What we know:
CATH class of the domain at 179-372: Alpha Beta
Strand content: 5-15%
Shape: globular
Enzyme class: oxidoreductase
Family: Belongs to the ribonucleoside diphosphate reductase class-2 family.
Function: Catalyzes the reduction of ribonucleotides to deoxyribonucleotides. May function to provide a pool of deoxyribonucleotide precursors for DNA repair during oxygen limitation and/or for immediate growth after restoration of oxygen.
Helix content: 25-40%
CATH architecture of the domain at 179-372: Alpha-Beta Barrel
Number of helices: 29
GO molecular function: ribonucleoside-diphosphate reductase activity, thioredoxin disulfide as acceptor
Amino acid sequence: xxxxxxxxxxxxxxxxxxxxxxxxxxxxxxxxxxxxxxxxxxxxxxxxxxxxxxxxxxxxxxxxxxxxxxxxxxxxxxxxxxxxxxxxxxxxxxxxxxxxxxxxxxxxxxxxxxxxxxxxxxxxxxxxxxxxxxxxxxxxxxxxxxxxxxxxxxxxxxxxxxxxxxxxxxxxxxxxxxxxxxxxxxxxxxxxxxxxxxxxxxxxxxxxxxxxxxxxxxxxxxxxxxxxxxxxxxxxxxxxxxxxxxxxxxxxxxxxxxxxxxxxxxxxxxxxxxxxxxxxxxxxxxxxxxxxxxxxxxxxxxxxxxxxxxxxxxxxxxxxxxxxxxxxxxxxxxxxxxxxxxxxxxxxxxxxxxxxxxxxxxxxxxxxxxxxxxxxxxxxxxxxxxxxxxxxxxxxxxxxxxxxxxxxxxxxxxxxxxxxxxxxxxxxxxxxxxxxxxxxxxxxxxxxxxxxxxxxxxxxxxxxxxxxxxxxxxxxxxxxxxxxxxxxxxxxxxxxxxxxxxxxxxxxxxxxxxxxxxxxxxxxxxxxxxxxxxxxxxxxxxxxxxxxxxxxxxxxxxxxxxxxxxxxxxxxxxxxxxxxxxxxxxxxxxxxxxxxxxxxxxxxxxxxxxxxxxxxxxxxxxxxxxxxxxxxxxxxxxxxxxxxxxxxxxxxxxxxxxxxxxxxxxxxxxxxxxxxxxxxxxxxxxxxxxxxxxxxxxxxxxxxxxxxxxxxxxxxxxxxxxxxxxxxxxxxxxxxxxxxxxxxxxxxxxxxxxxxxxxxxxxxxxxxxxxxxxxxxxxxxxxxxxxxxxxxxxxxxxxxxxxxxxxxxxxxxxxxxxxxxxxxxxxxxxxxxxxxxxxxxxxxxxxxxxxxxxxxxxxxxxxxxxxxxxxxxxxxxxxxxxxxxxxxxxxxxxxxxxxxxxxxxxxxxxxxxxxxxxxxxxxxxxxxxxxxxxxxxxxxxxxxxxxxxxxxxxxxxxxxxxxxxxxxxxxxxxxx
Length: 976
């Protein structure tokens, strides 16, 4: 995308020899003018045309309500967004990122204003600090950055959108690491600094291992309090601030070294509190998440992690003893059984999900600045790991934007364009440090001296599925590793090019040998990585070229940044980019919620499913049948025509075919060697998981070279909502309530509306799997279908008689007001013989005669938008989708996504049949209403997602890395 005037001798990718010579000549010319700024090339934009002028803009109303009481918690009407932005993305950006008081003239009301506020600030700072070779290059930089943000190619982390270009401090970092020493002054500074960070809505992590243990003496002669006691005070402070400040949760990470004498007490802190929660709950106190009495429980505002070293892990492996060391002298004051201590960690994680584990020697083996201090801690989500009193600003790329189809329908990952966008984003991220403000002076000084960046990505799970790769497969891991390697290699290459223009980071000279050693480690890992198929091999080749340039340019120029990449949760910004999956996570489930323009929502099958089926070689009619099955069942098991060996491609984080815990660990291991930092991810385990399985996960994480790991066993937290199945069981075993007074009720019955003597009709002949038949469908003159007759030819008296009886039952139901779409949703995909090919071009395959009949009736009598919601399309519509990517007829404004929208919409009861009162339906409760994809999955699977409720809108959140994000309003439970 760009070249420095110092030159980059990377080989041209051009196939044209003349173009290659010309490019080399340009590089030679630029190399003769060192320190004159970057030349910026165009990626997406057109000279003379602003990116805003290339899209269609529309005005929308954003009204967000709390589903619990129906109250409006945010409203802004007439906001301006591109027409291709989803309702959810528009709602979240408007409510979270637009600045100015709602209703005031200063309030932002257009995405243009938001992007301009940020991008123009970056351009101005870049010009002031000598990043660009000319004003023309600065303008291209501005336009390319605006285009990428406008088209959801990438996003900065939330603090950038909150603060940049405003009158308030321009904090751009979401991740902070603090430090604390063994003195009361330092401990009180910790409380204050942490509180100020929480007040601003961010999170912080730190290591408490410098504080002497409760088994050591103070200088006055008494026993020290120990770090666990000081954790209590910090936890109370965080709990208070989260309730009264700008954020509803204080994101914290507390780390303790495994050789600290108080490590056992640290491990057991949350386990004991979990027992307290159980006792209080059994005594009648409200201990649910958000309950009135949960605040009396301690240590609930932080994630806890034990920092283990290789010495300890080898002692676990060999079954030997391990020494706990005094903080002041370093002498061993106690020896413990290493396996026993490791077992206690696993038991505690089994009981309450804490502590996680961090692998100290692995972390510091990849440390680029060891001469300036060890890495001792991480941010709350565990992806940022660097020096104490430092911060990291993040940005994430939307991987699905780089998946392309060629003219023959083959897929490839656009590695060249991906690398150009990475260069653009890294340049912008580094510029931001020039003008950024920081919460403390120490953090500001360290960050400006080391310029830590955290580029990452989202939508990996969607990309793997769309390309026909199982998440837990060698091919999936190879593609993930290749993309991660190319991203980090390109980032460091750009960092070396920036160093030639504006200088290396201040700490580089002292750490040059270590930094270049780590670059070689990354390059070596890239060289030895396994190549699998036609998708990942070209990406590996581009990554190899990038790492060669990194080593050469780094030794010559140094590096502008001590750190370049992490894999963050991408919660709110993932929703902003309309990503199906967050960070490195797989898909949550195959069926999701989609909000509709004008209000309401519908269930849809993920857009990536049809792409995956196409990649795997399935024909359009097979794709339609499989998608319809997924819409009804929520999984691919027994989907018509789907080969069992392809089931794994559609495995998700939850559901009938959930990815195994070790599958998550292996994916993390595939990406970790190519990241500067670590990965925000929690390995979900079923409720039936054992302590031994958790020990295996933690041990394999060390063997596979991970930097950090956390697990979550379903339903291990008392405060989590019970699953649907458990609630139902509790209701069955609950004692009967006292009989309520009998109340006289009025019973309403539906009224039959008969057809007139003369009625319009349509007769269709059909063949299903060799069985011939005729269908006559008669209609009301002005009110849709009212009668169906079925006649089977030469099928014997039994089938013919059953079809006669079935058609009479359907006809009577139609006349009593049962909507046709209800029948269609119930009887399509019903499987029995005869089944197979048909002679109907619109319905090429049918799973049974009943399946064919109701597909045909839907095509003849239901409007397009209703059919599309049910996943039923004509041959013409399917062809239109292949040609244009849309099923919609031209000229019609229909808010559907064709094949992906396959689950039935909500059907209102007929007007002739008012709903009976609650007393009459007690034995048949109404179905639970879902408000997002997590709750939908719970209803479908009868399981519990173990996620907290959103404090803003009341819906259940879903996991994003090691944090949670609300699909409804974009709120997160941790750092953004």
